[in-house]
């Protein structure tokens, strides 16, 4: 059974990842502003389904694969650490001060297409991939019981946090854009905080010997 402290630590990481502006957030804001809250919610359900796909992949294959081929885990671990450092640099590099949350004009789509676009946006989102492939295994301890159940628990924590935060973003999308547009200093602070968190995670990942 995963310890309460581990669940809190993973929840904090998941919260930090979902709050960092990325493809999911930008798409959901743009869709909600362009086509309304209902369209944003439908897109969000597509995003959640992609997370479920990642959970199933983690449960059914990744753990066994890592145990069978340890060198593969090491390669993915280092690739994940490098990618986290790249995300950290991307957040604070020169020219990153522009408001990336400014909504893009999107054409009106049917509910089915909205769902699929949300699904594909997240399925192809590198942040989602690195969260499940590289970060999640860092919080699993085989000595505490079933790796499968630990993966399920952590996955459900991440999905719950992602759904709640993104739903709030969808419901107040226009206000979020307006608020950050008038207070660019908060975006700058968020970038530096997120860069620090990502750097710390990269260091943890690189030094982990499990």
Structural features, described:
The protein has 9 helices and no strands. With 210 residues, it is an all-alpha fold. Helix 1 (4-19) runs parallel beside helix 7 and helix 4 (70-92) runs antiparallel to helix 9. The two termini are 17 Å apart.
Keywords:
mainly alpha, 9 helices
The number of distinct β-strands equals 0
Main β-sheet description: none
Distance between the termini: 17 Å
Number of helices: 9
Radius of gyration: 17 Å
Instruction: Give the proportion of residues in helices.
Output: over 70%
Q: Given the helix and strand composition, which structural class is it?
A: mainly alpha
Question: How are the secondary structure elements laid out?
Answer:
Elements (H helix, E strand, L loop, with lengths): L3 H16 L3 H13 L1 H32 L1 H23 L18 H13 L2 H10 L11 H25 L1 H10 L1 H24 L3
Helix pairs in contact: 1-7, 2-3, 2-7, 3-4, 3-5, 3-6, 3-7, 4-6, 4-9
């Amino acid at each position: 059974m995963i310890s309460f402290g581990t669940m809190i630590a993973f929840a904090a990481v998941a919260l930090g990842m979902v709050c960092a502006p990325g493809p999911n957030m930008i798409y959901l804001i743009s869709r909600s502003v362009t086509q309304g809250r209902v369209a944003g919610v439908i897109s969000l359900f597509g995003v959640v389904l992609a997370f479920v796909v990642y959970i199933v992949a983690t449960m059914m294959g990744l753990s066994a694969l890592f145990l069978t081929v340890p060198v593969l885990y090491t390669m993915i671990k280092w690739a994940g650490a490098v990618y986290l450092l790249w995300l950290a640099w991307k957040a604070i590099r020169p020219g990153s001060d522009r408001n990336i949350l400014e909504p893009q004009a999107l054409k009106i789509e049917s509910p089915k297409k909205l769902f699929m676009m949300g699904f594909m946006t997240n399925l192809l989102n590198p942040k989602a991939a690195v969260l499940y492939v590289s970060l999640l295994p860092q919080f699993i301890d085989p000595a505490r019981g079933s790796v499968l159940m630990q993966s399920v628990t952590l996955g459900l924590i991440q999905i719950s946090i992602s759904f709640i935060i993104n739903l709030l973003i969808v419901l107040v999308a226009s206000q979020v854009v307006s608020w950050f547009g008038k207070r660019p200093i908060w975006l700058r602070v968020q970038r530096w905080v997120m860069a620090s968190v990502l750097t710390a995670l990269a260091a943890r990942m690189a030094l982990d010997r499990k």
